[in-house]
Design goal:
By secondary structure, the protein is an alpha+beta fold. Helices cover 28% and strands 25% of the residues. A hairpin with a 4-residue loop joins strand 5 (85-92) and strand 6 (97-105).
Amino acid sequence: MKFSKKDVMDFVRKAFGDNATEVLIDRYTIDENDNPYDFTIFLDKNCQFPLVWSYNEEFFIASGCSKLVIVPKNRSYVIKIPWTGCYIEDFDEDNDKYTYHYDYEITYCPMEDEKAIYNMNITEDTKQFFAENEFVGLYNDSIPIYVQEKVLVGMNNEVAQKVCSASFTHKMHSYYKNLPAKIIKFIVEQVGYSRGEEVINEINDIDDLHGENFGFDKYGNFKIIDYAGYDSENYFAYNN
């Protein structure tokens, strides 16, 4: 995957500004697995610099329960940034306002787990289905920055609709309940039934593979993204 470190960091600077040292999510969002779009994201431990969710012609920002994503519009990659910590929101009744306080550091990094999964001793037939990610560096010497191959996510695109129209047998789904039928479908259509079964056997124990965790690259090849999940430690304990 080709990218310029300076180019990536320029996008981060445009999104975060010059003073960002943390990427903090509300603790309630983590505890309740809620939607991060409903909460403020702070870029410092003092909770003084909130992330500005504003329209930008060069990129847009998305988020999940384990990371923030910057999506440049004219690049072949997306920028993934793990949450570095949590803050707590309290209501100050005496002053009739909300206050925000740093709570704790988050040490789990889903992108490092994805890198480990990608680099495991698995067949090339399996590896081709994972979108590769790479560590770029630390923004302001503190925020880890990663890039991952950009894909068209989900079903709402021309390539996906074309692939979905192909014939498919549902035999495998009865044996592999952990994987969504759509993921099984696209793997088998891409490499055939015999090799597809080998691939599915290798990835069946990976946690958190669901309908929003896949897409298609610019060549129409099926790719799985966000394949670490919250329970990835269990996956590694099982496979090592």
